Protein backbone atom coordinates (compact mmCIF):
# COMPACT_ATOMS: atom_id res chain seq x y z
CA UNK A 1 0.00 0.00 0.00
CA UNK A 2 2.79 2.42 0.92
CA UNK A 3 4.52 1.74 -2.40
CA UNK A 4 1.32 2.49 -4.30
CA UNK A 5 0.90 5.75 -2.37
CA UNK A 6 4.50 6.74 -3.05
CA UNK A 7 4.08 5.86 -6.73
CA UNK A 8 0.87 7.90 -6.91
CA UNK A 9 2.59 10.93 -5.33
CA UNK A 10 5.51 10.58 -7.71
CA UNK A 11 3.17 10.38 -10.70
CA UNK A 12 1.18 13.37 -9.45
CA UNK A 13 4.37 15.39 -9.04
CA UNK A 14 5.43 14.43 -12.59
CA UNK A 15 2.06 15.53 -13.98
CA UNK A 16 2.39 18.84 -12.12
CA UNK A 17 5.81 19.41 -13.69
CA UNK A 18 4.41 18.66 -17.15
CA UNK A 19 1.50 21.05 -16.57
CA UNK A 20 3.83 23.88 -15.51
CA UNK A 21 6.01 23.22 -18.55
CA UNK A 22 3.01 23.26 -20.90
CA UNK A 23 1.63 26.48 -19.40
CA UNK A 24 5.03 28.14 -19.58
CA UNK A 25 5.66 27.13 -23.19
CA UNK A 26 2.17 28.36 -24.18
CA UNK A 27 2.76 31.68 -22.42
CA UNK A 28 6.12 32.11 -24.19
CA UNK A 29 4.50 31.18 -27.52
CA UNK A 30 1.81 33.85 -26.99
CA UNK A 31 4.37 36.51 -26.06
CA UNK A 32 6.67 35.79 -29.01
CA UNK A 33 4.09 35.06 -31.72
CA UNK A 34 3.81 38.73 -32.81
CA UNK A 35 7.55 38.59 -33.53
CA UNK A 36 7.28 35.47 -35.67
CA UNK A 37 8.83 33.16 -33.07
CA UNK A 38 7.69 30.29 -30.93
CA UNK A 39 9.12 29.03 -27.66
CA UNK A 40 11.32 26.43 -29.38
CA UNK A 41 12.63 29.01 -31.86
CA UNK A 42 13.56 31.24 -28.96
CA UNK A 43 15.23 28.37 -27.12
CA UNK A 44 17.61 27.79 -30.03
CA UNK A 45 18.31 31.51 -30.49
CA UNK A 46 18.92 31.84 -26.75
CA UNK A 47 21.36 28.93 -26.68
CA UNK A 48 23.24 30.46 -29.61
CA UNK A 49 23.21 33.97 -28.11
CA UNK A 50 24.41 32.77 -24.72
CA UNK A 51 27.22 30.71 -26.20
CA UNK A 52 26.14 27.74 -24.05
CA UNK A 53 26.77 25.32 -26.89
CA UNK A 54 29.58 27.16 -28.64
CA UNK A 55 32.17 24.77 -29.96
CA UNK A 56 34.79 27.40 -30.73
CA UNK A 57 35.70 31.03 -30.19
CA UNK A 58 33.72 32.41 -33.15
CA UNK A 59 30.30 31.58 -31.64
CA UNK A 60 29.53 28.74 -34.02
CA UNK A 61 27.73 25.83 -32.42
CA UNK A 62 27.57 22.29 -33.66
CA UNK A 63 23.99 21.15 -34.05
CA UNK A 64 24.67 18.18 -31.77
CA UNK A 65 25.75 20.62 -29.00
CA UNK A 66 22.53 22.59 -29.41
CA UNK A 67 20.54 19.36 -29.28
CA UNK A 68 21.98 18.72 -25.83
CA UNK A 69 20.56 22.04 -24.59
CA UNK A 70 17.04 22.08 -26.06
CA UNK A 71 14.11 19.73 -25.74
CA UNK A 72 13.71 18.73 -29.37
CA UNK A 73 14.47 15.60 -31.32
CA UNK A 74 17.41 15.80 -33.73
CA UNK A 75 15.07 15.87 -36.74
CA UNK A 76 12.81 18.55 -35.22
CA UNK A 77 15.87 20.63 -34.37
CA UNK A 78 17.19 20.29 -37.92
CA UNK A 79 13.85 21.47 -39.35
CA UNK A 80 13.72 24.38 -36.89
CA UNK A 81 17.27 25.46 -37.77
CA UNK A 82 16.41 25.27 -41.48
CA UNK A 83 13.42 27.55 -40.85
CA UNK A 84 15.52 29.99 -38.80
CA UNK A 85 18.08 30.02 -41.62
CA UNK A 86 15.35 30.70 -44.20
CA UNK A 87 14.21 33.63 -42.04
CA UNK A 88 17.76 35.00 -41.97
CA UNK A 89 18.24 34.48 -38.23
CA UNK A 90 21.03 31.88 -38.36
CA UNK A 91 23.59 30.58 -40.80
CA UNK A 92 24.64 26.97 -41.24
CA UNK A 93 27.99 25.70 -42.43
CA UNK A 94 29.82 22.41 -42.63
CA UNK A 95 32.41 21.78 -39.91
CA UNK A 96 35.90 22.05 -41.37
CA UNK A 97 37.26 19.51 -38.90
CA UNK A 98 34.41 17.02 -39.37
CA UNK A 99 32.60 17.32 -42.69
CA UNK A 100 29.66 15.33 -41.31
CA UNK A 101 28.97 18.00 -38.68
CA UNK A 102 26.96 21.18 -39.16
CA UNK A 103 27.76 24.43 -37.41
CA UNK A 104 25.19 27.13 -36.68
CA UNK A 105 25.67 30.81 -35.81
CA UNK A 106 23.36 33.73 -35.20
CA UNK A 107 23.22 36.40 -37.88
CA UNK A 108 23.08 40.07 -36.91
CA UNK A 109 19.32 39.91 -37.57
CA UNK A 110 19.02 36.87 -35.28
CA UNK A 111 21.04 38.52 -32.52
CA UNK A 112 18.95 41.68 -32.80
CA UNK A 113 15.66 39.77 -32.68
CA UNK A 114 16.86 37.73 -29.71
CA UNK A 115 17.73 40.93 -27.82
CA UNK A 116 14.34 42.40 -28.69
CA UNK A 117 12.30 39.43 -27.47
CA UNK A 118 14.45 38.37 -24.51
CA UNK A 119 12.54 40.63 -22.07
CA UNK A 120 9.24 39.20 -23.35
CA UNK A 121 10.41 35.64 -22.72
CA UNK A 122 11.70 36.54 -19.25
CA UNK A 123 8.38 38.25 -18.42
CA UNK A 124 6.50 35.11 -19.52
CA UNK A 125 8.75 33.02 -17.27
CA UNK A 126 8.09 35.35 -14.35
CA UNK A 127 4.33 35.25 -14.87
CA UNK A 128 4.13 31.46 -15.03
CA UNK A 129 6.88 30.37 -12.67
CA UNK A 130 6.78 33.08 -10.00
CA UNK A 131 3.18 34.08 -10.43
CA UNK A 132 4.01 37.73 -11.21
Spatial order of strands in the largest sheet = 1-3-2
Strand tally is 3
Judging from the principal axes of the Cα atoms, what is the shape?
flat
* SSE sequence, one letter per element: HHEHHEEH
Cα end-to-end separation: 40 Å
- Seen as an oligomer or otherwise, the chain set is single chain
Specify the structural class: mainly alpha
Report the radius of gyration as a whole number of Å. Answer: 18 Å
The largest sheet is:
3 strands, antiparallel
Beta strand %: 5-15%
Question: How many helix segments?
Answer: 5
Structure description:
Helices cover 64% and strands 9% of the residues. It has helices at 2-32, 39-50, 63-67, 74-86, 108-130, and strands spanning 61-62, 90-94, 102-106. It is mainly α and 132 residues long. The protein contains 5 helices and 3 strands, in the order H-H-E-H-H-E-E-H.
Explain the layout of strands and helices:
Layout: H1 2-32, H2 39-50, E1 61-62, H3 63-67, H4 74-86, E2 90-94, E3 102-106, H5 108-130
Antiparallel strand pairs: 1-3, 2-3
Q: Which properties best describe this structure?
A:
single chain, mainly alpha, flat
What's a quick, concise take on this entry?
The chain has 132 residues and is mostly helical.
Amino acid sequence: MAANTADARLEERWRDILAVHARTMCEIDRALHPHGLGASDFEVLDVLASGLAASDADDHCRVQNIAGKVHLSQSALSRLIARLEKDGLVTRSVCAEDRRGVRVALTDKGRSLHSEVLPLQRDALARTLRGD
